[in-house]
């Protein structure tokens, strides 16, 4: 399991809560998610993949008044190489603790399910989509396919682990840019943000 980073003395309160929460998101990446969340003017924020809430805190803290954050994660046990990679219910408990500790509970709703179950009945436009769930190519494509119909024109979409050709987002992003559906916005660390063009 990842460890929380130790950090800086003069960090804003929300960033301190990010530091205290386990996860793989760097502090620079958290600051960028916070900035993108603060720019949402239409629709809601949807996070695919929450783990213990590190990125959720950044999105919640940046989200303008009245813009909710929906965090989607089944919090199911997952095994890799014979080891427990995700603890499932224990991760969900840690998520709730992080929301309570940080105050993010006021605008965050955890939806314990998967994109393919939830998205077909979704009825809210999305202004910011953060895709950090299954990082396989099939998984990322499935999340994109599920949520694309609900994106506002001009919505921001952010992909984690987007620069490694051996991980899912890399090839999907290249295809979407070539097709004109998205255009590049900015890279921060291993995160890539794009603008949805609606093509």
Protein architecture, described:
With 199 residues, the chain is an alpha/beta fold. The chain has a single domain (13-196), classed as Rossmann fold (3-Layer(aba) Sandwich). 34% of the residues lie in helices and 25% in strands. The protein has helices at 13-19, 27-38, 54-62, 89-102, 115-118, 137-147, 169-179; strands spanning 44-48, 69-72, 77-80, 83-87, 108-111, 126-131, 151-159, 182-188, 191-196. The strands form two sheets. A seven-stranded mixed sheet has the order 5-2-1-6-7-9-8, sandwiched between helices. A two-stranded antiparallel ribbon has the order 3-4.
> Unreliable segments (pLDDT under 50, ≥5 consecutive)?
3-8
- What's the CATH architecture name? 3-Layer(aba) Sandwich
Oligomer: single chain
Largest sheet: 7 strands, mixed
Shape: globular
- Sequence of strands across the biggest β-sheet: 5-2-1-6-7-9-8
Structural class by SSE content: alpha/beta
User: What is the radius of gyration computed over CA atoms, rounded to a whole number of angstroms?
Assistant: 16 Å
H/E element order: HHEHEEEHEHEHEHEE
CATH overall fold name:
Rossmann fold
Count of DSSP helices? 7
Mean pLDDT reading: 92
Number of domains: 1
Superfamily at the CATH H level? Vaccinia Virus protein VP39
Strand content: 25-35%
What is the gist of this entry?
With 199 residues, the chain is α/β, with parallel strands linked by helices. It has helices at residues 13-19, 27-38, 54-62, 89-102, 115-118, 137-147, 169-179; strands spanning 44-48, 69-72, 77-80, 83-87, 108-111, 126-131, 151-159, 182-188, 191-196. The protein has one domain (13-196): 3-Layer(aba) Sandwich (Rossmann fold), CATH 3.40.50.150.
């Amino acid at each position: 399991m990842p460890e929380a980073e130790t950090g800086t003395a003069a960090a804003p309160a929300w960033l301190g809560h990010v530091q205290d929460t386990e996860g793989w998101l760097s502090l620079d990446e958290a600051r960028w998610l916070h900035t993108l969340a603060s720019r949402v003017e239409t629709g809601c924020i949807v996070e695919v993949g929450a783990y213990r809430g590190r990125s959720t805190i950044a999105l919640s803290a940046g989200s303008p008044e009245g813009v909710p954050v929906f965090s989607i994660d089944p919090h199911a046990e997952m095994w890799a190489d014979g080891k427990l990679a995700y603890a499932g219910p224990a991760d969900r408990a840690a998520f709730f603790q992080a929301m309570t500790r940080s105050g993010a509970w006021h605008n965050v709703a955890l939806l314990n399910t998967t994109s393919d179950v939830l998205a077909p009945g979704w009825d809210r436009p999305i202004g910011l989509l953060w895709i950090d769930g299954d990082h396989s190519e099939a998984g990322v494509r499935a999340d994109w396919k599920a949520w694309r119909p609900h994106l506002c024109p001009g919505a921001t979409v952010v992909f984690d682990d987007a620069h490694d050709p051996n991980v899912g987002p890399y090839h999907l992003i290249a295809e979407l840019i070539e097709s004109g559906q998205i255009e590049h916005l900015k890279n921060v660390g291993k995160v890539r943000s794009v603008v949805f063009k609606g093509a």
